[in-house]
Structure formats: C-alpha cells, structure tokens
Amino acid sequence: MYDKIKQYFQDNNLPKFRIKQFEDLIFKQFVSSFDDMTTFSKDLREQLNENFNLYSLSLIETEKTKDTIKFMFETEDGDHIESVLMINGKRRTACVSSQIFCAMGCKFCATGAKPFKRNLTGEEIVEQVLFISKYLKKMDERVSNVVYMGMGEPFMNYDNVVESIKIFNDRDKFDIGARHIVVSTCGIIPKIKEFMNLNLQVRLAISLHAANDELRSSLMPVNNQYPLKDLIEVCDEFTKKTNKKVSYEYVLIKGVNDSEKDAKELVQLLEGKLVHVNLIAYNPHEFADFEKPAKSTIINFKNILENNKIESSVRRSMGDEISGACGQLAGKK
Ligand code: SF4
User: Fold this and answer.
1) Which of 27, 146, 173, 207 has the maximum number of C-beta atoms within 10 A of its C-beta?
2) Is 13 a domain residue?
C-alpha cells in the first residue's frame, strides 16, 4: 500500500517532503489511520481515506503471558496469521510469519499440519512488525530484533521476505541492524545460495532437528530433496562468505531424536565448524503425537555437545501456554 500511496502523491504533484512525512508517520509514529495524520490537510486525509486502506492486516486479538505476546491478524481475504513478541532482557524480538500455513510438511509442526494457502506480501510481513512496534511504543520501547520463525518457510516466499528485510533494516524506516535479523529455513539450498550472495549481513538459522538423513527425512520431507551433506556444505559456504556463524535449531522430541546416539551424530556432523546449536524442547500441540523430553535428557544432550566443543544453548520455550512457541503457530482457521 505504501508504494501505491507514494505513487498517488507523485501523480497528484504533491511536494516530495510529503512522502517523507508519510513515511515518518507510518514507520516512526506508527499511526493507526489516515485521520491520525494531522500534519496533512483535512482534504488530503479525506482523499487518502477514499482511495486506500492504510493497512492490509487487521489486528483481531492479542494474548499475553509475562514475557510473550501473541498477535493474531486477519488478512484482507479473511485468513488468520500470527506473530509473537518475545521480551527477553532488553531484547524485544518480533517473530513474524511469512506464509499462510506451510507446504513443507514437517511432522512436528502445527503450521505444516494445515493446508498451505499462500505467500504473504512484503507489506503483510512488514505490517506485523508495525503493529508490534505500535504496541511497544506505548511503553516507550521498540522492536530490536526480527526473526522469521513464525508461520511458513521464508525461502519459499523469497522475494517478499527479502523486500521486508530491506524495510526492517532501512535507517529511515525501522532501522533494525542486519545482525539483529534472523531468517530461519528448513534448508532450501538454492535460496540459501541466492541469499548469501545478496550480502545483507542478516543471520541464518537452519531447522535441523536430526543429524542423519533417514531420521531427518522422516521428520522433514524437504530432506529428500536437499539432504544433510549438501545442506551443511552450503551453510559452511555461508559462514565463509559472510563471516557469520550459522545457527542450527534442534527441537528435542522424546524418544525420537534426543538420545546420546543422536547427540553424538550431531557432534560428528558439526564438529570443527563455526556454529551455534539452539536446543528447544518440543512444544506439544494437538496436531502431532510427540512428547517433550525430560529436563535431564536435555541437559545430557547439551553436555555431549559442549564436551565436544559444539557451542549450544537451551532456548527457553517462551509462549507455549498461549500456543505461541516454536512450531505451534497454527492460526484459528
Ligand atoms: S517447521 Fe517451518 S518449514 Fe517446517 S512445516 Fe513448520 S513452518 Fe513449515
């Protein structure tokens, strides 16, 4: 919409500074409507109201816990998407969705359990962070980090995701440092290559979840097309080219991928590489029959990695009580 509105300003010979004012009102002041744009004349506000909707998403619901707020939006075509704000120390991380559901079919994931609908537009991705920013502004706070870990596989919506990253990173817009933006992919190799050649300095996370092809293919069908060896190879290339550590996300599922043997296989796969492993305890949900491992299993798994010099952390599962945790975003439809 912003591009169309900017075009409208140009077509109607409005002075250039109006576009700058418009961008400030959207990206710095997070106004809710054209009527709030009081720096514009009443006549211009009326024209804008007649010709455009300011936002394509409508915020329909928020759910909060102490450190997590889930935002539910409705799209113009009536679908629902979700984003999550995570509060951690000084960090305010917006976890955004890039698609309406997902076609990748990972067996443990609530988003993948429902039929894929469509890619989100760049604007729909950006608006999730606009609404979260508006929420934070009331507390005099701002979004410090953006992670593409909500609904959808970002690299299956590559162009719109890249467009949104550029807007988040733009100094005149959100001004979020590239190092504070993470794109998480299940491993679409050609797109990882394309992405690293853009040299955006954005960080990359890989949803790994298994350290051998047989297990990974059974959990994540994408592994049949892009097997582990090729995936790790391209991630090594990413690190070499960007000088950035790749994060590997590993959801620990009881009795599936959480044994000592699994941990040792993971060591073998990643040893000697500049990586970080994020261990996440599986968050149970209605769409899959898996269970969370015991705390002692998680600690044991982490110790095996650490003893073999693989840097790792156990990600505190934020938001599972509101279905806003990893792999749980499924919308209401
Ligand atoms: S884990 Fe990611 S890629 Fe896999 S189905 Fe879920 S949203 Fe899609």
Assistant:
1) 146
2) yes
pLDDT at residue number 333: 44
The reply to whether 146 and 237 lie within a common domain is: yes
Residues 86 and 40 reside in one and the same domain: no
Give the pLDDT score at 327: 55
The residue contributing the CA closest to ligand 1 atom 5 is 112
Quick one: residue 45, left, alpha or beta (phi over 0 = left, psi -120 to 50 = alpha)?
Answer: alpha
Task: Specify the residue with its C-alpha closest to ligand 1, atom 3.
Answer: 153
Of 128-132, 216-220, 285-289, which gets the smallest average pLDDT?
Answer: 285-289
325 vs 299, residue with greater confidence: 299
281 Cα to the center of ligand 1, angstroms: 16
Cβ atoms 188, 166 nearer than 8 A: no
**pTM as predicted:** 0.94
83 is a domain residue? yes
Provide the CATH number for the domain around residue 189: 3.20.20.70
Q: Which residues lie with the beta carbon below 6 Å from any ligand 1 atom?
A: 102, 104-106, 109, 111-112, 152-153, 186, 207, 327
User: Residue 330: its pLDDT value, please?
Assistant: 59
Closest CA to 155 of 165, 144, 145: 165
Range of the domain at 293: 58-322
Examine the domain organization and report whether 101 and 175 are in the same domain: yes
**How confident is residue 276, by pLDDT bands cut at 50, 70 and 90?**
very high
What is the Cα–Cα distance from 205 to 182, expressed in whole angstroms?
7
Q: Is 102 a catalytic residue?
A: no
pLDDT of residue 315: 81
CATH number of the domain residue 26 falls in: 1.10.150
Using CA positions, which residue lies closest to atom 4 of ligand 1? Answer: 106
End-to-end CA distance of the chain: 25
Residue 331: is its pLDDT beyond 60? no
Same domain, 28 and 158: no
Residue 328 lies in a domain: no
82 is known as an active-site residue: yes
